[in-house]
Design brief:
Radius of gyration: 20 Å
Shape: globular
Structural class: alpha/beta
Distance between the termini: 32 Å
Number of helices: 10
Largest sheet: 8 strands, parallel
Oligomer: single chain
Order of helices and strands: EEHEHEHEHEHEHHEHHH
Helix content: 25-40%
Strand content: 5-15%
């Protein structure tokens, strides 16, 4: 089922569709939704973290809220404003691959928020900060919320199950379509097809052809241009693979001590 990301003010024009509502002004949500979250509404996205958040507290209890950061380094202090929402709403912070990423992730999880890394073609500095954030995610015992894509990829590696970054990070155009107020697809939000992008990269002999992470990544970091060098990203994935191997070994050792079969991991 396709979920449509639409402006909150245009919600009435999309009746009955599974939706994500995005807005810079939470007051629009009160107008669009009233006090109850309708069935089929996945979550709401707030794109201005300095906005008046009182209307968010009045939205339907249990409605998930996604806080979209654009400049992690400067917006970091604004996250404190939203801690009170957790009494009524699950809260996630979408952090772009930009300088300030590591501190933003650290603060978000300390406040009890889930995290999703967003965007494409991260700089080497951003990937270095992501590796710092991964280390904290793996070794800080107080972390209780998922940080994606770390959590999803780690689980997949531990259990030898497939995972797709496009789906994990909610950017697969076959699953989520980002529309404007007229119902037209926003430009530059992603490829028309993640599968077609992967096939094009492989056919062109791009770095993806021999990449061990192709099945999971499918060219995620190559969009919108295939000339991106994935060397730093591969180091991040290697960190995840090493962590998964350690976790599998620990689980196997524990199962053996308990007299359980190894295949029960």
């Amino acid at each position: 089922m396709i979920v449509y990301s639409i402006p909150a003010a245009a919600y009435g024009a999309f009746p009955g569709r599974p939706a994500i509502l995005r807005t810079a002004d939470p007051a629009e949500l009160s107008v669009a939704l009233g006090s109850n979250a309708p069935e089929g509404l996945a979550y709401v996205q707030l794109t201005d973290l300095s906005a008046d958040i009182a209307p968010l507290a009045r939205c339907g209890e249990g409605l998930a809220v996604d806080l979209v950061m654009s400049e992690p380094a400067s917006e970091l202090p604004l996250l404190y404003r939203f801690s009170g929402l957790l009494a009524r709403h699950p809260v996630r912070v979408s952090v772009p691959w930009l300088p300030g990423l590591a501190r933003a992730v650290k603060l978000a999880v300390s406040l009890g928020f889930a995290v999703r890394l967003t965007g494409h073609r991260p700089t080497p500095q951003a990937v270095a900060e992501a590796r710092q954030a991964l280390d904290a995610f793996l070794h800080n015992p107080t972390v209780a919320q998922p940080v994606e894509p770390f959590h999803g990829v780690l689980v997949a590696l531990v259990h030898d199950t497939p995972v797709r970054l496009w789906s994990l990070l909610e950017r697969d155009p076959a699953q989520i379509r980002i529309l404007d107020e007229r119902g037209e697809a926003l430009p530059d939000q992603g490829p028309a097809s993640a599968t077609a992008l992967r096939d094009t990269l492989v056919a062109a002999g791009a770095e993806c052809r021999e990449c061990e992470w192709l099945a999971s990544c499918e060219g995620y970091f190559k969009w919108p241009s295939a000339d991106y060098d994935c060397a730093d990203v591969k180091r991040l994935f290697a960190d995840l693979r090493e962590a998964a191997a350690e976790l599998k070994a620990g689980l196997a050792a524990y199962a053996e001590l308990q007299g359980e079969p190894r295949h029960g991991i």
